[in-house]
Amino acid sequence: MKAAFAYVRANPAHPVPLHLRNAPTAVHKNEGYGTHYRYAHDEPQAYAAGQTYLPEAMTAAGVHFYQPNRRGFEIKLADKLEQLRALDAAATANKTGEKP
């Protein structure tokens, strides 16, 4: 929590990614609001691999606020996070033609 507060204090407000923005009007739709949004529950494993939810500046900087420790239930959470990050890496590699 402290890291998130420190980040917000130290960094300017970043724009919300276009695919997460509501498009209530034709103008917004023409500007790309809501385009390419993927509903996770319609995806394999109910996870939209490669879909980002943080602003581009944070994603590009590799910002992560949650770092599970390796004890108790957080062991399972850490393992799941590892699996999801591998899915993200594979999805990103498929977009760019790289190997994960």
UniProtKB/TrEMBL annotation:
UniProt domain MgsA AAA+ ATPase C-terminal: residue ranges: 2-84
Pfam families, A to Z: MgsA_C (PF12002)
High-level lineage: Bacteria, Pseudomonadati, Pseudomonadota, Gammaproteobacteria, Cardiobacteriales
InterPro entries associated with the record: AAA_ATPase_RarA/MGS1/WRNIP1, DNA_pol3_clamp-load_cplx_C, MgsA_C
Highest taxon of source: Bacteria
Any GO molecular function: single-stranded DNA helicase activity
Signal peptide: none
Protein name, entry field: MgsA AAA+ ATPase C-terminal domain-containing protein
GO BP terms in the entry: DNA synthesis involved in DNA repair; DNA-templated DNA replication
UniProt-listed SUPFAM superfamilies: post-AAA+ oligomerization domain-like (SSF48019)
